[in-house]
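Posting for a labmate who doesn't have an account.
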Amino acid sequence: MGDSRIDRRHFLGAAAAGSLALAFGSAWSQATTPNLGMPTLATPGFRRMKLGAMELLAINDGVTRRPLGEEFVTNAPIDQVRSLLSSQGLPTEYVDVPYTPFLVVSGDRRFLFDTGFADNGGPTVGRLRANMEAAGFKPEDVTDVVISHYHGDHINGIRNKDGSLMFPRARVHVPAPEHAFWMDDARMNAAPQAARGAFMNARRVFGTLPAEQLVRFEPGTQIAPGITANAAFGHTPGMCIFTVASEGQSFHYVADVTNIPSLFARMPDWSVLFDMDPNAARVTRRRVFDMMVREKALTGGFHFPFPAFGTMENAGSGYQFKPVA
């Protein structure tokens, strides 16, 4: 997939304060409201699939139930949002948001794509360790952590609340443009006050990682044999998605190209509160999902309904996620 070049000045626009503040810590994970009931957690919390000589595992970190307010979809009236959910037999007063990292086992290496929250979140998240161990792996078994972007629900699981590393033996691979954006002091100082926490969180997670443990990669390059990063800018300035290929089979991890596919895949021109450049995000969403449909490719997303593996199909003017059976 080609590079999506965007003007990063957009990311300090009017919407940045809300999305970046939520990115800081565990705002997603704290969103559960008791009067809406509790979300159902995946049991078991992992799913295995073979991909040529590799093994793929979707490993759920938990799920939160978030009240559905007018701010969630930034460019559509709430009645249209609720109507779309209702047409799919889904609740209209809240959305359930799952968090699912993916583990790729390739020879003697184990690649974890994104991390969830560790012990930094609310009561219905932080399940990755237990679900990973139920699948037969320990955090110490992870040789490589691969980060798609720097929103808190994707990076906070690198460190426990006490600052210790959840995956102490792993090299941490990060998109170079994403890292450069969040670690830029001038950009942090120019950001709205409410947004600066996200920049500080990036420093908390990555700032003291040893140089040999932090690996920056460029979009369009191969991270390891069979694993390629591709630009998917828009949701954040440097977000990447990943293609995993083995023996003629492929899997695409699309990270946050869509939050809540029942909304933003079905209506790909809608924008979620957390899209830092909504216009670029919409272009990326259509480009990526058009490719998924053409290839009939096995696809996984961080916020897709568990087991988070499936395919994308055309649906009206948008797309629909079809989970594996």
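Reply:
Got it, the structure tokens are right above this. The radius of gyration is 18 Å.
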